[in-house]
């Protein structure tokens, strides 16, 4: 969504080169929507989605907690004003010395999905709280996160028992239904799994207290998405169904849903050409591509809204590609993208919904192109 503030910024500042502009008012609105729709869940913003200091400071001031994947992200969250008690080290793949550094910084909440990781934490952060991530099928997500993270629920039981034996506090279960999850009921089967883990552990005298329901909340790209409220209602109904009147503490970790629609990338058309005289589709080359921050166009997974000043003209399907000398740097080709027939070299385009997962994905200097600049307003 290109807000009036972003329009005004671009019109007055006229930044050269591709850049991301993030409107903090939208981030604030998103935070309040999550708070209001899921009032009983603690919000842990997934820092990786957009770690700009201004974004972190705003969220810290609004009372957000932070889900961090590295010591550097933990330091950024602390720098932004969060206390260590408001930070979780949510990556299931950590070096033991990073666990020790996090522990020294006061972090006391760690994700695991294996016996091996539990051993590291028991040595480097003795007595810390751990939650075990369970696998989900990622079904319905446009950017699935399945397979790499989590273990099957039965193994989660063993992992949490082991953590308890090693003197850690077995605290809960986590999962992530997959990013850009457009089905509101996608949390249900994972919550059923979480409940089974709770029951198995209770039988062994270990009483878990928390379910970390991860991220997955979508941002609007081309298609409409359900409201935060619809997600909140569906998730609460599932919590009730599975946990009855003993609903544990819950955490949500929105990343994309917190910042995605707050950002717009301004880019420029560098070249429009054809590969042969009878080529059906024109190739439109922008000054940003997969290596400039639009990595989530991989396999054409995320399809961003692209606006031009000629959108009222006739449209024709085009290939869209980036400016680098790598043939993988094509954004949309299998599914051609409609752009105005009058689009011209030098035109500005606005790529909406780019507040999440862009700046941090942009290469440092591939082909000499600068990393994506960001203006947080
Ligand atoms: C990336 C990530 C998130 C954020 O996911 P979104 O789909 O962007 O909301 C949340 N939790 C964990 C553990 C993650 O890795």
Automatic annotation (TrEMBL):
Write the record's keywords in alphabetical order, separated by commas: Lyase, Pyridoxal phosphate
From the UniProt record, give the pathway where this protein acts. Amine and polyamine biosynthesis; putrescine biosynthesis via L-ornithine pathway; putrescine from L-ornithine: step 1/1
Q: Which residues carry this modification: N6-(pyridoxal phosphate)lysine?
A: 48
The record's annotation in SUPFAM superfamilies points to: Alanine racemase C-terminal domain-like, PLP-binding barrel
**Chemical reaction(s) catalysed:** L-ornithine + H(+) = putrescine + CO2
Q: Name one GO biological process term.
A: putrescine biosynthetic process from arginine, via ornithine
The Orn/DAP/Arg decarboxylase 2 N-terminal domain sits at 26-259
Pfam families per the UniProt record, alphabetical:
Orn_Arg_deC_N
Which family does this protein fall into? Belongs to the Orn/Lys/Arg decarboxylase class-II family.
Q: What is this protein called?
A: ornithine decarboxylase
């Amino acid at each position: 969504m290109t807000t009036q503030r972003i329009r005004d910024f671009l019109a007055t500042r006229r930044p050269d080169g591709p850049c991301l502009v993030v409107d903090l008012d939208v981030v604030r609105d998103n935070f309040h929507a999550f708070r209001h729709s899921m009032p009983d869940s603690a919000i842990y913003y997934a820092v990786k989605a957009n770690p700009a200091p201004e974004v972190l400071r705003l969220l810290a001031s609004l009372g957000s907690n932070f889900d961090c994947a590295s010591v550097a992200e933990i330091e950024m969250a602390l720098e932004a004003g969060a206390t260590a008690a408001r930070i979780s080290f949510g990556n299931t793949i950590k070096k033991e010395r990073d666990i020790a550094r996090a522990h020294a910084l006061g972090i006391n909440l760690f994700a695991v999905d294996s016996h091996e990781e539990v051993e590291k934490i028991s040595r480097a952060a003795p007595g810390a709280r751990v939650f075990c991530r369970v696998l989900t099928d990622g079904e319905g997500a446009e950017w699935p996160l399945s397979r790499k993270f989590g273990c099957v629920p039965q193994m989660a039981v063993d992992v949490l028992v082991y953590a308890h034996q090693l003197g850690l506090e077995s605290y809960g279960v986590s999962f992530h239904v997959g990013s850009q999850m457009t089905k509101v009921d996608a949390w249900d089967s994972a919550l059923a799994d979480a409940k089974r883990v709770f029951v198995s552990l209770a039988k062994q005298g270990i009483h878990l207290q928390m379910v970390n329901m991860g991220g997955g909340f979508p941002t609007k790209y081309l298609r409409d998405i359900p409201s935060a409220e619809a997600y909140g209602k569906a998730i609460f109904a599932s919590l009730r169904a599975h946990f009855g009147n003993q609903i544990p503490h819950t955490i949500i970790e929105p990343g994309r849903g917190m910042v995605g629609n707050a950002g717009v990338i301004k880019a420029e058309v560098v070249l429009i050409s054809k590969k042969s005289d009878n080529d059906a589709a024109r190739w439109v080359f922008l000054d940003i591509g997969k290596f400039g921050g639009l990595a989530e166009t991989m396999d054409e997974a995320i399809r961003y809204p692209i606006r031009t000043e000629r959108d009222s003209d006739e449209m024709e399907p085009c290939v869209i590609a980036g400016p680098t000398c790598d043939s993988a740097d094509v954004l949309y080709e299998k599914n051609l993208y409609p752009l105005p027939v009058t689009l011209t070299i030098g035109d500005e385009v606005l790529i909406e919904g780019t507040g999440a997962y862009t700046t941090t994905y942009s290469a440092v200097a591939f082909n000499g192109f600068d990393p994506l600049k960001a203006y947080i307003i």
